[in-house]
Write a structure and sequence with these properties.
By secondary structure, this protein is mainly alpha-helical. It is 51% helix and 5% strand. It is built from 5 helices and 4 strands. Strands 1-4 form a two-stranded parallel ribbon. The protein has a two-stranded antiparallel ribbon with strand order 2-3. The mean pLDDT is 93.
Amino acid sequence: MSVSPLALLRWQFDLTWSLFEYHLERLDAADALWEPAAHCWSVRQGVDGTWVPDWADTEPDPVPVPTIGWLTWHVGWWWTVAMHHLRGVPAPDRTAVAWPGPGEPSVAWLRGLRTEWLGLLDQLGERDLDRTATFPWPDGTDHTVTHTIGWVNAELMKNVAEIGQLRLMRAAQPVSDHQVSRQ
């Protein structure tokens, strides 16, 4: 039995999301800001109450260990930008994609992005998959919408694994060893 490329990509996404739900259902607010190492990227609350992710335009060496909060912001940022590109509308600047906060606000945000993504996929036909894609590829590539959807799946898999591993590491520590910072 033949499976269409769009059906396969959707199956792959659904599988990845089911693995993510395992961790999302167990995340609490303290997980988001737990710093597993001294050299971390996190999200930090500004004086106006908004959450600002750590960022450098050139990746530092060594690469900082991201917190779950930073990773959830990162997922929200690249996913938002990918959806804007697929719709053909201007994407927001990185600084305009705000993290809603630890715990349920970020979980609800990610689930909302999932619903939005599935709605976008449902609007695509098989012929749409061959359109040239503008993100995350540099200008002049021959990558298609199919490539972008596959990239979203791969990026989500990677970030889900990172979030899951951090959550499991924190859960495995004695409570006295949890170093929750900047709440």
